[in-house]
Design a protein that fits this description.
It is a single chain. By secondary structure, the chain is mainly β. It folds into two domains: 83 residues, no CATH class; 295 residues, Neuraminidase. The protein has eight helices and 25 strands. The strands form seven sheets. Strands 3-4-5-6 form a four-stranded antiparallel sheet. A four-stranded antiparallel sheet has the order 9-10-11-12, with no helix packed on it. A hairpin with a 7-residue loop joins strand 9 and strand 10.
Length: 435
Amino acid sequence: MPPEEGGGEHGCAVQDHPPATDRRGEDAPPHSTPPLPAVDPVGSKWWKSTIPENECGTPNEPFVSFLQEKEQQQEHQQPAASLPEGPLIEILARVPYRSLCRFKCVSKAWLAFCSSRDIRRRSPQTLSGFFYNDRSGLHFCNLSGRGQPLVDPSLSFLRESYTDIFVEQFGDGLLLCRCWNTGTRSDYLVCNPATEEWTVLPPLLFPAQEFGHLLHFKPITYLGFDASVPSRFVVFAPLTNGLNDSRKLAIYSSETGQWTYVPSKWVAGTLVDHSRKTRVFLNGTMHLITLHKTIVTIDAEGKVWREIEMPNELPSGSDTASIGQSQGRLYAWQIDSPRNCQLYIWVLEDYGTGKWTLKHTVDILELFGRHYRKDEYCYKMFAIHPDCNVIFLTDGNKMTVSYNLDNHKVDVICTESMYGLPYTPCFSELPSAGH
């Protein structure tokens, strides 16, 4: 079905919010909050315009039910000066971050209350937007398509220490960056744009016997981070011979603060497609696409190595398939040809046997509301929502949209091409944060 044009800011349309996923972890710190603001739930009834429906069609039921009950009570008795602090804190601790941002508009007191780091740290998070690059640098697009970016894409908090910053990898709520100052060697660091913390990684030095001398190597790097386990992240750096053949890997663990060097246990001749930087970190395991339509995996300790065949039904003669993860499962997708523009989406049903199931087939031209394919358009699905059945696509020219696979709803995210990388904010303390 054709996309629904909207009137959001910056030529964008409003997009509903997806359901929140509880990613607080077991080590969430005790909360301390600023003074409780007074709220008049009857007079203003501000909440009716601030409770969003999500992309899967489910509103924030606990908060809605609580406020509706309070409103009914107030019809028969004198309104209280404020809500009880305990219940309100527990409610707000379960409200997605994007909703907290909207509640800040209620009053100055609510601005301070909803800005509390402890409230935000306990708040469940879900996909908030996309980082993407163009000729002018790094940008951030809110999933709603409106307003200022939820995070600063210039990474200004790093500018005091580094003059040049290049984002190498995105990993859920963290970024892997390569940073340097004029006349100095570069540093690799992992930063959290939500909390403005970062950790500098030690230099990556491959053993002398690899090249006959000690080498300070510029690696191909992959960041692995799972917001449900915020106390740890890992970085994988395959050493290649220039032909994408990874013979040795370096693995950095935030738990040890060191690199570990391990020989590759993938089949000889395995060629990882490093040029696309496609990766999925799922269940503590990194998944990388190869040039011969397979997926190779390695766990965070470098002990378990696997190779998974891609779906047998992959169209031939088209672009290499892409992978992503949603709701704890691995997905693969591919568009069959520039002329037909049929999108096929598979899910890995059985991880042990490598069994894939074709879940969805989408007519790209119908989705974008076009009856024929123009040569200047280059259609691509670039992401899948981590918490529900929503995919994100662009025509490579004038439009980027989301498509709900359940209710077939199309929303315009922005009126330009955007090959974005998903971002989910994380307010937990960055492991081994040096700043």
